[in-house]
Amino acid sequence: MADLRFVPDHNMSAYLGDPPEKHSEFKSLVDGLIISPVNYAIMEHPTIVSDYIEGFWSTVTDHTDSSGNVSIIGKIQGKPITITEQILRECLQFGDKDTDPVELDQDLVNRTVFQMGHEA
Fold first, then answer.
1. What mean pLDDT do residues 86-103 have?
2. Domain ranges of the chain
3. pLDDT per position as a tens digit, 22-72
């Protein structure tokens, strides 16, 4: 497993858009977050949010189940948080089908990876 630690150079802001179709019941929640002080705090005071992110990464462990699926398990304010590939794919809506490809300009990818502080 890769080195699981907080990297302060990573972009910690997020765009709150419509949730995946299978989680459409959360649309009103997302809409509420967008107009709430929470969204303002995340965008205007990222240091507060970074404390939670850093706390999460300082507690993470990785777990592989019998099927070979890897989970990252950490805590935020003592509450366990589990992240899996499936959860990420649902939330980020990766285009995994041949009919729905994701094409990115190689120069854009290289610049983005460089800005994130990737050292490989």
1. 64
2. 21-115
3. 767 767 767 776 776 666 766 776 666 677 878 888 888 888 999 988 898
Residue 35 gets the label, from left (phi > 0), alpha (psi -120 to 50) or beta, of alpha
Tokens representing 11 are 């972009």
Q: What distance in Å separates the CA atoms of residue 76 and residue 99, rounded to the nearest whole number? A: 38
3-class secondary structure per residue, the chain: CCCCCCCCCCCCCCCCCCCCHHHHHHHHHHHHHHHCHHHHHHHHCHHHHHHHHHHHHHHCEEEECCCCCEEEEEEECCEEEEEEHHHHHHHHCCCCCCCCCCCCCHHHHHHHHHHCCCCC
